[in-house]
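Before relying on records like the one below, remember that each one covers exactly one chain. Contacts with other chains, cofactors or solvent are not represented anywhere in the record.
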Amino acid sequence: MVKSGQPLIIVKQTSTDYVLSFPYNQKIVAVVRDLPERRYDAKKKEWHIPVSAISLAQLKQSLNSIAKVEFEKFETASKPVALPVEFIDHLTRRRYSKSTIRNYSHHLGRYLCFIQNLDLQDQGQQIYAYINYLSDEKQVSNSYQNMAINSIKFYIEAVLGKKMPALSLRPRKTRRLPVVLSKQEVTSIINQIRNKKHKLIISLIYSAGLRISEAINLRINNLDPVRGIILIEQSKGKKDRQAPLSEIINSMIEQYLKEYKPKRYLFESTQPGVKYSAKSIQNIFSTACQKAEIKKHATVHTLRHSFATHLLESGTDLRIIQEILGHSS
């Protein structure tokens, strides 16, 4: 515990180092001397510890027991960096989805912007410093950190033709149970929707266990009411699969088609032939949840989890559920 009257340590994080400033104190010096790769700048009377040598969390743990510690905010470079043309070309040629290209481009741009100010020439140290910055300074989620690593790895291996440095960068996997709505809650949500088109979208996503991207990419000719199936083409992982088309949903679709007369996609915007937006579907679902007074943190994807759970609870074989969802595991 830090007691009142204890000395103050000012920690400033640069792009390469943690810089420690404090009045001379024998106990603090003894602790700092045990920190990895520490060095002392006698002119400025500062201690420097490379960000690649220790995480911010470890540094805090070492210092908090002996002094009051204040951290100065660290800003990355603000000058934008143009993405290499080859990066986008490689992603496009390998048929990555638009969302993946957009996400990878975002993360690589942030990385290249960050390393502008780095004095480090070693690529491994640059990557380590950036991921360390994301996890400790920005405290990003595990998925954000993984996406950043994936984009950098793709750039180094596919574009530069080099091997990704062997670094321990991946966050520990967290195991969280997905949010699941009861059948009554799903019914309550759907009953709040008055618009025929909107009600069909939400009902179809739940009844077939669709991802939101799969719903907006559905074409009219993907429906096979005779066989009672929906053909989902080139979904996640570039895989085709079949999902169930119930008689009730098919009846709703027939009425919808007569009234709305979409040209190409099952769900289109106000412009004929232009697919409906994911954001619009999210807004429909969010509004319906509020009206139904759902307290759970539910999203459109929660309908997919709920669909699978309800099938399992009704006795459907796990292997069949796996095939419907398009999961390889």
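DSSP finds 13 helices and eight strands in the chain.
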